[in-house]
Design brief:
Elements lengths: L7 E7 L2 E7 L9 H15 L6 E5 L11 H5 L10 H10 L5 E5 L2 E3 L1 H7 L3 E5 L3 E3 L13 H9 L1 H10 L3 E2 H7 L4 E3 L1 H16 L3 H14 L4 H14 L4 H12 L9
Parallel strand pairs: 2-3, 3-4, 4-6, 5-7, 6-9
Antiparallel strand pairs: 1-2, 7-8
Helix pairs in contact: 1-3, 4-5, 5-6, 9-10
């Protein structure tokens, strides 16, 4: 358990899956600067843990994250994005090489929505709501939300959500392609952990390569993306896991991957 003062971050490991739960000020599971920095640091530790192959991120049961500590923002006359480590926390989380699944119930507003967008897969409970409210505070999304949303939805649909502040429920978010699954709230974490356990059975180096390939597709044109993907594919043929996967298929058994 890490206690950043204005909240807490806890990590629970079950085999190759780690669940990271963050608790901020209620109501709304509000993010503070110290809580976000502690969350990024905790996920960073899991990055270097060879026993962990997949990570689930969960907020409070009634609210993934409904916003940030406005008192901290009010006390900031000018924020320098080049020096402020707070905004860089979302980038650090987005660069995690291991699959990161967000389990969202209740509101994910403003920075909470940006946090979900920084994850690789988003699952939602039936109570989930997604939206941007930054413009009502006189600021725009600054933790990557605008960039990630535009890449996921395209310019026009992203601007519609950001400029109007319109909120999406879980089913609407799934129809838009932002959410993978919607489950009853009481089943959300269990089902998300089931998905994480399935991912954790796959070859870790291949999982990492697949994630890198898909993320690269957001940054480059098709020709360069194909070159990048094929290079990763070819590199995997030098791994022990590739040999194990092929042998297990031939032997009619489940493979046992070691991430080598």
């Amino acid at each position: 358990m890490m206690d950043p003062g204005a909240g807490s971050v806890s990590v629970a490991k079950d085999g190759a899956v780690a669940t990271v739960t963050f608790r901020g000020r209620e109501p709304g599971n509000i993010l503070s600067r110290s809580l976000m920095e502690s969350l990024a640091a905790g996920l960073g530790l899991l990055e270097n843990d060879p026993a962990v192959r997949c990570v689930v991120l969960a907020g409070a049961p009634t609210a993934f994250c409904a916003g940030w500590e406005t008192s901290e923002l009010e006390a900031t006359p000018v924020l320098d994005p080049g020096r402020d480590s707070y905004l860089a926390c979302w980038d650090r989380i987005g660069r995690l090489s291991k699959p990161l699944l967000a389990a969202v119930s209740g509101p994910a507003f403003g920075p909470g929505f940006e946090l979900a967008l920084a994850c690789d897969l988003v699952t939602a409970g039936e109570s989930a709501l997604f939206g941007f409210d930054q413009l009502d505070l006189g600021v725009s999304p600054g933790a990557g939300g605008g960039q990630r949303l535009a890449r996921a939805l395209g310019r026009h649909r992203a601007l519609d959500l950001i400029l109007t502040g319109r909120r999406l429920n879980g089913l609407e978010a799934m129809e838009a392609g932002l959410v993978c699954h919607v489950w009853p709230d009481e089943l959300l974490l269990r089902r998300t952990l089931d998905a994480a356990r399935t991912i954790a059975t796959k070859a870790p180096l291949a999982v990492k390569a697949a994630k890198e390939s898909v993320l690269e597709a957001e940054e480059v044109d098709l020709e360069n993306g194909l070159h990048f993907e094929r290079r990763l594919f070819g590199d995997l043929f030098s791994t022990m896991d590739q040999k194990e996967g092929m042998k297990a298929l031939r032997d009619g058994r489940k493979p046992s991957f070691e991430g080598k």
